[in-house]
């Protein structure tokens, strides 16, 4: 289940071997064995895990809502535009575009 939950990013063979190395004891498995074991998992297990994580997250109560409506978990800032104020420009600098279209940080 942990391999499935951790979003497999490499080939199945590589991920299975990586998991078995972490477990140690010289275990060996094939892709087919992994697929057969995965087929035996009941979907209710994932529903229960999700419910557990959701209850644990919201049970802490240490989050704040954006506009008293939205739960903002993260933002990379790419869609944010701050108001143009001297204090902000002084603290964060500004971007100036050159003729070649490349942005240069000033300040």
Mean pLDDT: 79
Task: Briefly note the structural class of the backbone.
Answer: mainly alpha
* Rg measurement, Å: 24 Å
Sketch the topology as an H/E string, one letter per element: HHHHEEHEE
Characterize the main sheet.
2 strands, antiparallel
Strand order, sheet with most strands: 1-2
Number of strands: 4
Task: Describe the structure in brief.
By secondary structure, this protein is mainly alpha-helical. It has helices at residues 2-5, 12-23, 31-40, 43-60, 86-92, and strands at 65-66, 70-71, 94-97, 103-106.
Structural summary, described in words:
- By secondary structure, this protein is mainly α.
- The chain has a domain at 2-71.
- Helix content is 48%, strand content 11%.
- The chain contains five helices and four strands, in the order ααααββαββ.
- It has helices at residues 2-5, 12-23, 31-40, 43-60, 86-92; strands at 65-66, 70-71, 94-97, 103-106.
- The strands form two sheets. The chain has a two-stranded antiparallel ribbon. Strands 3-4 form a two-stranded antiparallel sheet.
- Strand 1 and strand 2 (70-71) form a beta hairpin.
- It is elongated.
């Amino acid at each position: 289940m942990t391999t499935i939950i951790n979003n497999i990013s490499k080939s199945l063979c590589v991920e299975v071997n990586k998991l078995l190395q972490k477990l140690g004891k010289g275990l060996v498995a094939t892709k087919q064995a992994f697929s057969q074991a995965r087929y035996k998992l009941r979907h209710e297990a994932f529903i229960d895990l999700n419910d557990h994580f959701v209850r644990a997250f919201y049970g802490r109560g240490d989050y704040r809502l954006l506009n008293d409506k939205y739960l903002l978990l993260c933002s990379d800032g790419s869609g944010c535009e701050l108001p143009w104020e001297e204090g902000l420009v002084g603290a964060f600098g500004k971007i100036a575009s050159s003729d070649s279209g490349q942005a240069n940080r000033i300040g």
